[in-house]
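anyone seen this seq b4? input:
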Amino acid sequence: MKVLSVDDRPESRYLLELQLGAQGFQVVSASNGAEALALLEREAFDAVLTDILMPQMDGFQLCREVKRRPALRDVPVVFYTATYTDPKDEQVGLSLGASRFLLKPSEPEVVARALREAVAEGPRAAPPTAGPEEAEHLEAYNERLVKKLDEKVGQLERTTRALREVFDHTSDVILVFGVQGDELALEAMNRRAEEALERPAAGALGATPEAALGAERGARLRAHARASAASGAPARYEEVLGAGPRARTFEVLVSPVRVADGRVERVSVFARDVTARLAVEAAQKLECVGRLATGVAHDFNNLLTAVLGHSELTLARLAPGDPLRGGVEQIRRAADRAAALTRQLLLFARRDPPARRPLDLNAVVVDLEPMLGRLLGADVRLEVAVDRAVGWIEADAGQVEQVVVNLCVNARDAMPEGGRLRLATAEVTLADGAPELRGAPSAGRYVALEVEDAGCGMPPEVLARVFEPFFTTKERGRGTGLGLATVWGIVEGAGGCVTVTSEVGRGTTFRVLFPRAAPGAAGDAHPGPPAPRPAAGEAVLLVEDDPALRALLEEVLAEGGYAVLPAGDGAEALAAAARAPAPIALLLTDLVMPGMSGAELAARLTRDHPGLRVLFASGYGRDLLEAEGALRPEHWFLQKPFTPLELLRQVREALDAPAAAG
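predicted toks r here
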C-alpha cells in the first residue's frame, strides 16, 4: 500500500517513514499541502496521512482540494494532528471528507490500522461545492482556523516575552548584527549591553560596529566576524571596557548565523565579564609563585648565612691594611644585597613583613648605578641626577632597590634600539588639590624618584592597565606582567604613590613619591648593634641539618666563649643532650628539619630540662611560621641570614631573659 505522508516537521516525516515502513507501507513524504497536491497529481496513492497546521497549504485545505478534484476524490484522507485536538476540529475534518481523525502521538499499529480501514471502506462523500452547506463548512473551517491562529499567536507572544526576559536579564552582554553584503548593522542589544556600553538601545539600533562600540573596538569586532564567517567557527577574544578601577575585562564570542542556503544572515556577539575569574586566576598564580619563592628563599638564606658568617669572620682576622680585605668586603656587600633580594621574594609572597627604617634614597640610587649600567647594556645611556638636598624616607631598603631596578628594566625594554634613560631624585611638596593627590594619600612633603625613558611610549588603553598583575604587552616568554604591579604594591605599602605619563613615540616617565621621613629620623638610621655581654662558658645545644652552616655556627659560638654540642637532626640532639657533661643552658635549633621538627625537639627537651632556653632559627619568615603554628609570639627567633654578631647578640639576650621562652 502506497501512502503519502504530509508534515512540515522533518523529524515527524522521518519517524512516520520508519514506523509505516515497518508495517509494510510504501511511504512518500511531502512538507506541506501544496507539495502534496502536486505529488498526488503526478503519482497514484492509496491514501493520504496528513498533519493539519502547515505553511502554504494546511491539511484542511489539502483535504478540500483532494475531494473537489474528480481524479483525486477517491483517495482516502486521514488527519494526524497534535494541534487540532478539540472534538469540533474532528467534526470539521470529517465534514470535509476525511476518513479518519487521529491525534498525535498514536501507536504505529493504530495509524496503520486506520489507514487500512480507510482504504477498505472506500472514499467518503465529498463536501458540497455550493449553497448553504458549503457556507456552513467554510464558516466552521474559518472558526477553527482563527481559533488556532489566536492560540499560536498567544503562544508565540508568551515565548517571545520569555525569550526577551532571558535576553534582558542574562549577565552576558548580547549584541545581534544584521548582515547586508559587507556591512553590519545592529539589530538588537540586551540591557546588560546598554549598561556596559553606557548607551540606550534606542539610539544604537541600526549602527555599524564602529558607531556602536567606537572605532577601535568596532574594527576588532568586524575583523573577528569576518574571520568567523570564513572559518565557520566562533571567534574568541578579550575586550576591556572602562579604565582604572572601573575597568572590566570581557571574553567575547562572535558567531555567524547562517540561513538554509549557507549565507550569513546575522552575527551574534556574546561578551561575558571575566574580571572576577581573572582576578581569582591571578591570585592563584601569585599563590603558586609565592610558595615557590618561599621555598627558594629558605634554601638561599641558609647559603647566605654561611657566606655572611665566613666573610665576617675573615674580616675580623685580617689586619686593617691587608690587601685581601677589599675582596672580602665585596663578598660581604654582595651577600647583603642577595639577602635583601631574598627578603623581596618573601615580601612578594607576603610571607615576611618589610623591614622599614629611615633610608637615604640618594644613597640607594648611587649604590645601584654601577649595577644598573651593566644591567641596561651599552646601547642605553644612563643619566643619574640626584638632588643632594632631598630628605630621607622610611622604607625597606631591598624593596626600594627593587622599585628602581624594575622601573629601569621596564624603561630599557621600551627602547629596543637603545636611547637615554634618566634617573633622578627630587623633593616635592604637594598642596591640597594637586593633580598627583589623585594617587597620593594626602598633601605634604614627598621625596620623588623619576625614571624617564625615550622609548616607544604607551597608548591610553595600555596606560590604563599598566599596573595590573600579569598584564604585559611583551611577547610570550619575555614578560610576566609582575614588574610594575610589584612596584605599585611596594610604593603603596610604604605610604606613597606612583604616577605615569606617556605618549606614543615620545617616551614614558614614571614618578614615584615616597613620604618624607620625619626630621631627626635619619640620625637613627643605622644604629650600631650593642656588643653582646661576654659568654661564661654556657652550654649551647646547636641543631642544624646543613653541615656547612652547622660548622660555621659552631665556630662562631665557640669563639664567643660557649661550650657547643652540635647535632644534625632531632635524634642526634636528644642523644647529645642525654650525654651532656653539664646542664644545657640554650637550645639553638633550626625549625624546619627532616624527621623531627625544631618545635617538636624543643617541646621534648624543655619537658626533660626545666629552665632550658630555646632560640629558633629559620630561613622562613616569622609571619609564615606563626601562621602555620610552628612558632609562637613569645618564642625567641633568629631570621636567616644573620651575621656572627647578630647570632651572638641574640644568644646572649635569650640566655639573659628573666624567664624561659620556649
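DSSP finds 20 helices and 22 strands in the chain. Residues 470 and 481 are 4 Å apart (CA to CA). kinda curious what u guys think
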